[in-house]
Amino acid sequence: MKKKIVFLTGAGMSVESGFKTFRGNDGLWENYPVEQVASHDGWLANPTLVNNFYNNLRKKLFTASPNRGHELISSLEKEYEVTVITQNVDNLHEKAGSTNVIHLHGELAKVCSSDNPYDKRYIKELTPEHPDVEVGEKAEDNSLLRPFIVFFGESVPMMEPAVVETQKADIFVIIGTSMNVYPAAGLIHYTRPGIPVYLIDPEDVYNPNNNNFKHIKQGASKGMEELCSLL
Length: 231
Prior knowledge:
The chain is of the alpha/beta class.
């Protein structure tokens, strides 16, 4: 029976791919105030601005490629049962071949109904050929199409499946996240006692005071190479 590895990935996972999602250090995302483009109030105030922002971000995503770190996570599926829980809205884990990815904060490549964001009937995946939501474009329920993103101020519906997967982990790996963004940061508390926990990040960002905790002070790609040599 394969051991289960659960990865929790954040913005640092995708930096080497040239795609940086919001970290929160300066309150800006791509030079926009986060409240303007990543909050429910911002959406209500100016849906055209918000959709245009994500249209531009989506075009950057469609030109981005997975880095070595993404590829190594995917490669571990040969020997382990792997679940990736990501705070990122990109699809670089999937592009690298990961088959079990839980997106806590939504998916940039998708759009949805503004009235019923999680109704699967109204969720649509956009393509590199057609990456934009047009001004006033509507979902099939006649509400405005909006990014399939969990805005600040909204609940995180994928948190429950993430907790379930974390509780099953034989090995838990954190990559490129400050562990300051909740509820995702709380996942560490759902790991079973005694399992090994690895943190891959060049900065000192988290220490759970756990004897089985190892900090690999590298970026995502170099850190994953080191992790693979340790496993």
